Amino acid sequence: MHGPRHDEIVKSLVDLLVSVLPEGAERITATGETDLGHSTSSLTVSDAGGTVTPVASPPEFDLTLIQLWDDTAAADAEPWNTYTLTVQRDGAFTLALSYVSPEG
């Protein structure tokens, strides 16, 4: 499920999220759906007290996700179409890619 540029593209996504992480927030989470030439994302930040607040996505974030999907599609006949990327302030991250059938 990893294409040849996977690590490079994921690093770009992580760097983008760290760049919009507000002061006082501990982590940022991006979730969404991606397919051929299309991506929709929702971003939230969480602080130490557990407060979760929506934030705007950087304009290049969805374009970079599309690059990751394209990279995956080059290596896998049925690439992922949903994702969750959580990034801590120190740059540590978790990325979950999954395939959800459009039928349900």
From TrEMBL:
Residues 29-53 are annotated as: Disordered. This is Uncharacterized protein. It comes from Catenuloplanes atrovinosus. The lineage of its organism: Bacteria, Bacillati, Actinomycetota, Actinomycetes, Micromonosporales.
